[in-house]
Amino acid sequence: MRWHWEDPYAVEQDDTRKVNWRIIKNLLPYFRKYTKTIIIASFLLLFSTLLTLLGPILIKRAIDVEIPNQSTQGLILIAAIYIVVQIVVIVVRYFQQIEIMITGERAIADLKADMFRHLLRLPISYYDKHPVGSLISRVESDTEALKSLFSSTAVILVSNIALLVGMSVVMCVVSWRLYLLILVMLPIFAYSFWWFEKHARSVYVNLRKTIAEINGFVVETVKSLNVVQAFQQQDNFVSKIHRMGKDKYKYDMKALSLWYRIWLFVELGEIIGIVLVLGFGGIWALAGLISIGTLYLFISYITRLFVPLRGLSDQINVIERAFAAAERVFNILSIKEEFHVDEKHVLREFEHAIEFKDLSFFYEDKNWVLKNLNFRIAKGERIALVGETGGGKTSIISLLLKYYSPQDGDILIDGTPLADIERHSLRSRIGFVPQDVILFPGSILENLRLFDSAIPDDQIFDAAKRAKIHDRISTLPDGYRTNIVEQGINLSFGERQLISYTRALVFDPEILILDEATSSVDPQSERLIQQGLKELLKGRTAIIIAHRLTTTRLADRVLVIHKGKLVEQGKHGDLLREKGHYYKMYRLQYLSGAQ
Amino acid sequence: MRSVIHFWKRHKIWFSFLVTFSFINTIISLIFPYILKDVIDGIRVNFARQDLLWFIMIIGGIGFLRAVFNSLLPYTRGRSNEMYLIDERTNTFSKILRKGHSFLNRFPAGDILQRVDHDLNELAWFSCSGLFRPIEGIFALVVALLFLIKINPLLTLISALPISVAAVGWLKISPIMYKYYYAWRDSISNTNNHMQSSFTGIKLVKSYITEKKTDLRFIEMLKKRVAASIKVIRLEALIHTLFTAIEETGVILVLLFGGLFIIRGDLTIGEFVAFNAYIILLLDPMLRIGNFFVSKKRAQVQSERIEEMKNFPPDVKDVGQVQEADHRGIAMENVSFRYAEDGPLILDGISIKIEPGQKIGIAGTVGSGKTTLLQVLMRIAEPSAGRVKLNGTDMREIRLSELRSLFGYIPQEPSLFSESIYNNITFGRRIDTPMVNNAVKLAQLEGFVRGAPKGLDELIGERGLRISGGEKQRVAIARAILGRPKILVLDDATSNLDADTEKALITQLSEIPGTTLIIISHRLSVLSICDYIYVLDKGKVVEQGPHEALLKKEGLYLKLYQHQIMEEELMKD
After folding, report:
1. What is d(CA A361, CA A407) in angstroms, rounded to the nearest whole number?
2. Which CATH fold would you assign to the domain A19-174?
3. Do the chains contact at B70 and A267, CB–CB below 8 Å?
4. Of all residues in chain B, what percent carry a pLDDT higher than 70?
5. Which of A248-262, A339-353, B83-97, B249-263 is predicted least confidently?
6. Within this chain, do residues B243 and B372 fall inside the same structural domain, yes or no?
7. Are residues B129 and B198 in the same domain?
């Protein structure tokens, strides 16, 4: 049973890679911490595996010596030894199994933590290119694939090899004649596994592709259900998915028939082994060359030999997937973090002004988003940025937060170029309220202090009171300890907004950057949000991407950004009188509101 | 679960074949140690070489059969699982295709996929493998016990006793196991939720310089997760250990008592060896039977999840009998619509008329109910009150397939599939290539198709050609006009084209003889070519008439007009 997170829309191209030593080298440090445990566990594994070989040897002795001698005592002694051996095996196995699995779990948790840590420190541009779902897949599913490589595949390989070697030695010592018979079969096995590996790869790649196609089709259809119905194409779509199902079935059957051949091969191998041993062994036994106990030993070893061989073919698929996963994991870990070298200036306090000088900027697609932007924000000023979507407002605040670097021009804080300012000291002066309210799994309290336990509870209660959300939080089932995500609490849009404001209040920043939500709300919530905003603005320098007229009225100055340029600026009333771009926007919004 | 029973009802012969097959397989697998017994005893009493060869041949033959059957059995089971999967997937999908908006409100796309993919797969495994493995287990248990009793009843009683403890034990332990599993699963989704929030809110995390605290939090969650998984690991290891211990107890009992019996002369060495083999074979069937109760419970849940989806009532029922494939007039009479019974009215007492050959425009602000109006008109959504009549007959009495074939629908968001341009246009209909080419021409897609490396066969979507919004809309238009519908329905379907192209395209569409056009647009240049315009506000028709007359009214239509002009001006600056 597995409940791993899977990205339903992810279509992995080719999910298999051959064994690669570079990847193993990358993986090793995660296990180094547990070297001692791994060595002990490996030793225990080898020890218990070899001990299991003793069982048939003891029974052989009972058959050959104690029973013919009618020695009840000897028989009891053997049974006693057998019991001791089995107890040791079982106990050792128990600990070995637990140690290996737990080590795998811990090492992979370390790897997950490393990936998460690293991802959080990657530049925002990385997030622009990678959907959240695929990032979670990398941290979750890919590392889990590596875990099974360590805690199941490696264990199976080691114990099977030990078993093979151990049995060989015992069989060789007990009867070299019979052993030679069995040895003949080994190259056939090697060949069959090589054959399986070769064929299974392409079948599984195709199988995964057909599955991804079916899933993609289901999602696309569900999303266009009304069109499918309008065109009365339901029957065609049904036969299409049936056809796709048959395609997948084809590869399923191919995979099954590969398995069938491996199963058949293993079973036949076992039977041939037994027939050979019984045939020749029987003749030799009749001739007195070997004992019946020896026959028993060989037959029981052969059956044991073939059980793990079946498991081995299972592992081929696991190994290849794990290496593909590891490659993706280490690719992420090798991406450079946000850059720091030139940032020598630590911003201790914001004193005078933020200046935007000849600022020009584009994203990866190289279309200018901002072009020669010039303006100055004095300490204590409240600025509203307005303009059409895509006009460049968000880029301005992203640049100020150093999420990206401009191609040309600069932003100066108290005269120091942003490029020289250490980004953490910059960001700690700024409080950012994004458009969407982000809530983490955890209590409201943790969400408000963002897991910073150094912030005292009272400071949080105080902020919530100022944002007028304290009373609402107090009515929740567990008050501030309520886990909104897990307990499925429905907070209204306005309440969520206020929680976001409270978070900013808790951190009490000198500069506030707020990306106002676009959704329209009922007048009462609107009033609450505006009240919260006023509280939030008190005594701060603020830059607000404003969508509401009430918000622009609060601003000391409105900057109209249009197609990457600053086209107008001034107070709300003055701009209206100028009857320029802002006036038109105002009229437009007024019209929409009036309808 | 019903679907599994249903599947086997339809495949009775296949079912009886599998039962027989499992039974034969069990007998063949289990007869093996019994013959082995005779060989070993024979060797002990020094029987003739000839006899030995005979036995070897029998062993070889049976062994061969066993090998073939043993590997064929999982093969046939796997095949049956996949057969069920195809059937059930197709069936479920066909039910989904008949659902309406209330279904989509209840089940998000990701959830539907989860059920169709994951739940169905597990149910498919249960449908045959999950069912037959315990059946086989019962066979094996009975047959092995029979052989054991035949060899020596007393020894059977002594040695099989501890193994029966295993089955009882498993039933007791599995609920605990499940508790641990669920705790573990919750801890996994916790870490995933944390990642989801952190990655979605990466800008927040960075601006509050809370990277460190966020990943400390993650590590904390991982620790809890490791702790939860260690519980599972420990219990699993314990179960494994106990079962091995029980199995080995059986072996030891055979060794000790069997040995004593031999010394007393009640047992031969061959019988002793066979006993050993049978005892080991007993444990697996017991576990299979025990496992069945667990997997049945899971399959029940999965089956319920699928049935829940299948049985969700569709909004529109296809029960009409009247055949009507012509358009002589549509009338909406006092139509109201709401998504939920206690929800707000999206359409509120709408009455409109559409005559054949007319060009009807629909205007209104965002959220005024325009799209819903079209959906009710095509009977994709069912009105909550009032009637829609086609040629004087209530649409509910008309066969859905014929009714909908009247319409060519071009939605706001052109729904394209990750397939070739050709398939996206034909959309499953069998239509000659010249007609497709004609539709491509009418939709002004020729240039785009010529530019694509493989022409009409070029794939679009995620793994194919990148395609712009305007091109998407034109593909959707080609798709709609290809069926030569009597009524073309455009839901703001040309918004991504520039004004000139849009007007030219719509004029061209309106010139297709015998076609009625119904157009939602926010562009008044488009509306101005319509014969008659309905203006919607908050689900009501507030103004109606031809373009010029509406402008003169100086009401909402004029405001919309001004609004649009201003918007255009703003973007021109």
Report:
1. 5
2. ABC transporter transmembrane region fold (1.20.1560)
3. yes
4. 98
5. A339-353
6. no
7. no
pLDDT at position B48 over 80: no
The whole-number pLDDT of residue A453 equals 85
- Domain match, B465 and B370 both: yes
pLDDT digits (tens, 9 = 90+) for A130-189: 877 778 888 988 888 888 888 888 888 888 888 888 988 999 998 888 888 888 777 877
Same domain for B442 and B347: yes
Per-residue confidence (pLDDT) for residue A511, from 0 to 100: 92
Residues B42-47: contacts with CB under 8 Å, at least 24 apart: B42/B270, B43/A282, B43/A285, B43/A286, B43/A292, B43/A295, B44/A292, B44/B268, B44/B269, B44/B270, B46/A286
Radius of gyration, CA atoms only, chain B = 36
* C-alpha B267: how far from chain center: 59
The answer on B534 and B400 residing in a single domain is: yes
Residues B229 and B147 in one domain: no
A219 reaches B (C-beta below 8 A): yes
Q: What is the H or E stretch that residue A111 is in? A: helix A72-120
Q: Which tens digit of pLDDT belongs to each residue from B154-168?
A: 999 888 888 777 777
Looking at the structure of chain B, the number of domains it has is: 3
Partner residue facing A102 (CB), from B209, B233, B240: B233
CA distance A296 to chain B (A): 7
Is B339 among the domain residues? Answer: yes
**Adjacent-strand bridge partners of A377:** A354
Is the pLDDT at A5 greater than 50? The verdict is no
Q: Pick from B136, B152, B168: which residue ends a domain?
A: B152
pLDDT in tens, A93-134: 899 989 999 999 999 999 999 999 999 999 888 888 887 777
Chain A residues inside the 8 Å CB shell of B230: 102, 105
Q: How far apart are CA A255 and CA A448, in angstroms?
A: 52
* Contact of A295 with B43, CB cutoff 8 Å: yes
**pTM of this prediction exceeds 0.80:** no
- Is residue B405 assigned to a domain? yes
Secondary structure element (H or E) that encloses residue A545, with its range: strand A541-545
Mean predicted confidence (pLDDT) in B260-282: 86
Q: Which of B79, B102, B207 to mutate to test binding with chain A, by most A CBs within 10 Å of its CB?
A: B207
Cα separation, B378 vs B316, whole angstroms: 11
Label residues B16-34 b or e (16+ Cβ within 10 Å = b). eebeebbeebbbbbbbbbb
Report DSSP letters for A346-404, one per residue.
------SEEEEEEEEEE-TT--EEEEEEEEEEETT-EEEEE--TTSSHHHHHHHHTTSS
Same domain, B146 and B204: no
pLDDT of residue A7: 40
B343 and B245 inside one domain: no
* CATH superfamily membership of A352-429+545-595: P-loop containing nucleotide triphosphate hydrolases (3.40.50.300)
Domain of residue B448: give its range.
Answer: 330-572
Domain spans, chain A: 19-174, 352-429+545-595
* pLDDT band, residue A231 (cuts 50/70/90): confident
Rg, C-alpha atoms of chain A: 35
Single out the residue of A387, A324, A314, A344 nearest to residue A156, CA to CA. A314
Q: Is the pLDDT of residue B267 over 60?
A: yes
Give the whole-angstrom CA distance, residue A543 versus residue B430: 58
Q: What is the CATH number of the domain that holds B560?
A: 3.40.50.300
Considering the domain boundaries, does residue B213 fall inside one? Answer: yes
How high is the pLDDT of residue A273?
A: 86
Residue B317 within a domain: no
What does the pLDDT look like over A31-65, one tens digit per residue? 888 999 999 999 999 999 889 888 889 989 988 88
Q: Is A389 on the interface with B (CB under 8 A)?
A: no
Task: Give me the interface pTM, i.e. the ipTM.
Answer: 0.84
- Residue of chain A minimizing CA distance to B563: A588
